[in-house]
Design goal:
The chain contains 13 helices and 17 strands. With 395 residues, it is α/β, with parallel strands linked by helices. The strands form 4 sheets. It has a 7-stranded mixed β-sheet, with helices on both faces. A 4-stranded mixed β-sheet has the order 1-2-3-15. A 4-stranded antiparallel β-sheet has the order 13-14-17-16, covered by helices on one side. Bound molecules: pyridoxal-5'-phosphate (PLP).
Length: 395
């Protein structure tokens, strides 16, 4: 179906941060399939684990115990705020389940009228009907009938608006610690702390969408750790499977205990193959020193991106995000998709984001030398854009 505006590029093979087309053109992949190939392409441990598991057993359904899922869940619980995990196959599905979990919690506590979630302008939570309604973007909702009820949108970062939106029907607050699709916009750490406090004050659940920000992307395992807070429930996907489709809902016991047999489910979710992949990714990301190395390379990238923006004021006006999720804010004279195309010409893959931002999200295994190479390509791309921006400014 014509759902995508695809670039005329097809990749045959990848290794680490690099991709090759069938014609042998080589690209540095700083998009990571939208922050998903977290440990790079062709990671030997991930490849071997998937191959070995595929040869043993791929799928059995959730009618039976799945030791790979039990192990992966236990490891996620050990490494996070959560007491319990539900596996699914994508970010939208994880959010859909998270929304259901929040509603169920209040219903089981005698408040079925509490089913509203406070969400934020500029959010992106997925493409199912409920997650689209949580996203609230009119353009994405158009033509699909009435949105799912119960999502109240307020400006991102506005605590007064949050407080003003809380009513007798409010069940919780749903937020990305850093809005990814919306333009790599980080929430203030103070704002996240205040959301935690207001949830405690009113008995609301804090539901974090860490589909894009999690699994080490920010330099910590989960981005909310930078704020020193814990959510009640959290969604994850993208990076946790390293490119193999895997999503997860992580939750505190008080939320999870209401999702009894028959309340929620999935056929594929948490099957032996997906969870073997998830375990292999965790082996890499939780290895001693790995996240420290991510943080170190990220700081190198940030320094370079800041210098790049300073060198090209007609093209870029700033840098934002966290860790290896970096947004280059472009000036109104330069369109992000044009800059992205210019970077492709130089051999660098990036991803456009909202608010005219160019999103840079290399795999977590990226080296400083590769970051330097990418910065040079971006510099050349910015120089390509400069004449256009100069012309626009002269008008
Ligand atoms: C990508 C993304 C989703 C949707 O994930 P899919 O796997 O595409 O369904 C949801 N929330 C956030 C924050 C995302 O970045």
């Amino acid at each position: 179906m014509p759902t995508y505006n695809r670039a005329d590029l097809a990749f045959e093979r990848g290794e680490g941060a690099w991709l090759w087309t069938a014609e042998g053109r080589r690209f540095l992949d700083f998009g990571s399939g939208i922050a998903t190939t977290s440990i790079g392409h062709g990671h030997p441990h991930l490849v071997r684990t998937i191959a070995e598991q595929a040869a043993k057993v791929m799928h059995v359904s959730n009618l039976y115990r799945v030791p790979q899922a039990e192990r992966l869940a236990a490891r996620h619980v050990e490494a996070s705020f959560a007491d319990s995990v539900f596996f699914c196959n994508s970010g939208a599905e994880a959010n859909e389940g998270m929304i259901k979990a929040v509603r169920k919690y209040h219903a089981e506590n005698g408040h079925p009228e509490k089913f509203h979630l406070i969400c934020f302008e500029g959010a992106f939570h997925g493409r199912t009907l409920a997650t689209l309604s949580a996203t609230g973007n009119e353009k994405y909702l158009a033509g699909f009938g009435p949105p799912v009820q119960g999502f109240d949108h307020v400006p991102f970062g506005n605590m007064n608006a949050v407080r003003g939106a809380i009513g007798p029907q409010t069940a919780g607050i749903m937020i990305e610690p850093i809005q990814g699709e919306g333009g790599v916009r980080p929430a203030d750490l103070r704002f996240l702390q205040e959301l935690r406090a207001v949830c405690d004050e009113f008995g609301l659940l804090l539901a974090l969408d860490e589909v894009q920000t999690g699994m080490g992307r920010s330099g910590r395992l989960w981005a909310h750790q930078w704020a020193g807070i814990e959510p009640d429930v959290m969604s994850s996907a993208k990076g946790i499977g390293g490119g193999f489709p895997l999503g997860a809902i992580l939750a505190k016991e008080k939320v999870a205990r209401h999702l009894k047999p028959g309340t929620h489910g999935t056929t594929y979710g948490g099957n032996p193959l997906a969870c073997a992949a998830g375990n292999a990714v965790l082996d890499v990301v939780l290895a001693p020193g790995f996240l420290e190395q991510v943080d170190r390379v990220a700081r190198h990238l940030w320094k370079g991106m800041g210098e790049l923006a300073a060198r090209h004021p007609a093209v870029a006006s700033g840098v934002r995000g966290a860790g290896l999720l970096v947004g280059l804010q472009l000036t109104p004279e330069v369109i992000n998709s044009d800059m992205q195309a210019a970077a492709v010409e130089e051999g660098l893959l990036t991803v456009a984001a909202g608010q005219n931002v160019l999103r840079v999200a290399p795999p977590l295994i990226v080296t400083e030398a590769e970051v330097d190479a990418a910065l040079e390509m971006l510099d050349r791309a910015a120089r390509r854009m400069a004449p256009a921006s100069a012309k626009a400014m002269a008008k």
